[in-house]
């Protein structure tokens, strides 16, 4: 009669499992079933490793035969550098082929949900209206970005000095009448009593003196008028804050004398209130500014008009 018996050999360290006759075997030490299964698993793992190793050797031999039939040089006769180069080339070809053939990943389909309730549908409509179509930013974000761009490219407001240079077209020499332009008085007769510098024009006047060679001129009736004018300019700080000196304040007794001053100095700009002088000098002076409270029409293409000097430069 045959029976199935499981034993463990102390000499070999392996378990024995098989069919035996009903004999009286040598005494062996039985072990638990768990230890038998562990020993069996270890033997199977070693057998699998041996099979895998044999398979790799066969594949290597097959690959050597195929490569030797294609290339005249065998892989076994090649040096390590050549083998590395061939391996790198093969890997590059494989990865390139896989990259070219790999299709773009299909977009995942959104799972279909059950129809939402009325309240949730209203919320969904509002969120859709806020966020907009797919890939388009919300309206608020678009406006915010547009504001940032506008602020970045917004033109910086020019200073008064820059305005003066621009309006004078880079002119370097300027002649200007005092009465009605720099002074509040409107006639030479008033200068006999006093002279007052207009506060609104003082800032523009100082900027002109910084940038241009400025000459001030006026027709006076006596020496007292000259002293009143020079004292008013000195009290206003024109001689200290600006680049103007007293020698550049010219006086004459007639209107023709002022015209002669202008023609002799040959300025780039002349500023006056007398329309007759402006008309006479239009042929000789590059640019002129006619200051008049009524703002008349332009006498010529090179003659500009304004109600005041400060308004012409846009300081008010």
Task: Please state the CA-atom Rg, rounded to the nearest Å.
Answer: 53 Å
Structural class: alpha/beta
| Strands ordered across the widest β-sheet | 5-4-3-6-7-8
* Average predicted local confidence, pLDDT: 74
Strand content: 5-15%
Give the helix tally.
11
Supply database-style keywords.
316 residues, 6-stranded parallel beta sheet, 8 strands, 14% strand, disordered N terminus
Topology diagram in text:
Layout lengths: L1 E7 L6 E7 L11 H38 L9 H22 L16 H14 L7 H15 L6 H8 L5 E5 L21 H13 L1 E7 L3 H13 L2 H4 L7 E4 L2 H11 L3 E4 L2 H7 L5 E5 L11 E4 L2 H4 L4
Parallel strand pairs: 3-4, 3-6, 4-5, 6-7, 7-8
Antiparallel strand pairs: 1-2
Helix pairs in contact: 5-6
Structure overview:
This protein is of the alpha/beta class and 316 residues long. It has eleven helices and eight strands. The protein has helices at 33-70, 80-101, 118-131, 139-153, 160-167, 199-211, 223-235, 238-241, 255-265, 275-281, 309-312; strands at 2-8, 15-21, 173-177, 213-219, 249-252, 269-272, 287-291, 303-306. A six-stranded parallel beta sheet has the order 5-4-3-6-7-8, sandwiched between helices. The chain has a two-stranded antiparallel sheet with strand order 1-2. It starts with a strand and ends with a helix.
């Amino acid at each position: 009669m045959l029976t199935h018996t499981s034993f463990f050999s102390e000499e070999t360290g392996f378990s024995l499992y098989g069919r035996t006759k009903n004999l009286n075997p040598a005494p062996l030490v039985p072990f638990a079933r768990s230890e038998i299964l562990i020993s069996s698993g270890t033997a199977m793992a070693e057998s699998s490793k041996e099979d895998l190793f044999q398979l790799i050797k066969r594949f290597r031999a097959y690959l050597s035969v195929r490569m030797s039939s294609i290339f005249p040089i065998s892989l076994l006769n090649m040096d390590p550098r050549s083998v590395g180069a061939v391996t790198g080339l093969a890997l590059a070809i494989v990865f390139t082929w896989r990259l070219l053939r790999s299709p773009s990943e299909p977009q995942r389909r959104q799972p279909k949900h059950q129809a939402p309730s009325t309240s949730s549908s209203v919320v969904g409509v509002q969120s859709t209206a806020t966020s907009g179509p797919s890939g388009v930013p919300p309206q608020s974000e678009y406006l915010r970005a547009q504001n940032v761009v506008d602020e970045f490219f917004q033109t910086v407001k020019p200073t008064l000095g820059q305005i003066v240079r621009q309006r004078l077209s880079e002119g370097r020499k300027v002649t200007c009448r005092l009465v009605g332009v720099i002074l509040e008085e409107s006639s030479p007769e008033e200068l006999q009593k006093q002279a007052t510098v207009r506060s609104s024009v003082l800032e523009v006047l100082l900027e002109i003196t910084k940038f241009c060679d400025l000459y001030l001129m006026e027709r006076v009736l006596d020496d007292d008028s000259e002293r009143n004018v020079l004292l008013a300019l000195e009290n206003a700080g024109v001689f200290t804050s600006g680049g103007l000196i007293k020698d550049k304040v010219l006086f004459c007794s007639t209107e023709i004398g002022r015209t002669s001053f202008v023609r002799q100095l040959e300025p780039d700009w002349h500023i006056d209130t007398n329309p007759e002088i402006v008309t006479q000098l239009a042929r000789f002076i590059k640019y002129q500014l006619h200051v008049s409270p009524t703002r008349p029409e332009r006498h010529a293409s090179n003659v500009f008009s304004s109600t005041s000097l400060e308004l012409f430069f846009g300081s008010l």
